[in-house]
Specification:
Blueprint (H helix, E strand, L loop, with lengths): L1 E10 L2 E7 L11 E2 L1 E4 L6 H13 L2 E15 L5 E12 L8 E7 H4 L8 H9 L5 E8 L2 E7 L5
Parallel strand pairs: 1-6, 5-8
Antiparallel strand pairs: 1-2, 1-4, 2-3, 2-7, 5-6, 8-9
């Protein structure tokens, strides 16, 4: 089981999104995602979050909020538990990312981006500020085969 973090940084009604277009053999190629990545051995979800945001953006988070977990089950990729965060305070300046192109996207446009099919199910409540999310997305290839919301939000 792969453990990851994913963070949506918010500023002036926009979210910092990453268009995955730079890594070879990237299962997320061509998709827009938040900022995050895999846990290193012994890391907490908060330590992983801060490190990954620093590595991918150059920013040091100073305030963030945990929103919940999404369980991904896949017939093609390693199963994953993704811990969701938002952040609205940080230090530093944005640097280029070796995984893709970073861009501030207005909140009203985030759900119209080329996202994974299951992402809107957790993005809608996350963008509303809901916490205590727990969801499962089961994929067959790149297609969402099943979605389960364990907490009854929409």
């Amino acid at each position: 089981m792969l453990n990851t973090t994913l963070c949506y940084l918010k500023r002036n009604g926009c979210y910092l999104m990453l268009f995955r277009n730079k890594k070879e053999n990237d299962p997320c190629e061509g998709k827009w995602v938040g900022i995050g990545g895999k846990f290193e051995p012994g890391e907490t979800k908060e330590e992983c979050l801060v490190r990954e945001v620093k590595e991918e953006t150059g920013l040091t988070l100073t305030r963030f909020q945990y929103h919940g977990v999404v369980h991904f089950i896949s017939d093609r990729l390693e199963n994953e538990e993704m811990f969701l965060f938002t952040a609205d305070e940080w230090e530093g300046e944005i640097e280029s990312c070796n995984e893709g192109t970073l861009k501030w996207i207005p909140e009203s446009e985030v759900l119209s981006l080329n996202l994974w099919e299951g992402d809107p199910f957790f993005l809608r409540p996350l963008l509303r500020g809901e916490t205590d999310l727990e969801m499962t997305c089961r994929y067959e290839g790149d297609e969402l085969a099943e979605f389960v919301n364990h907490k009854e939000t929409d």
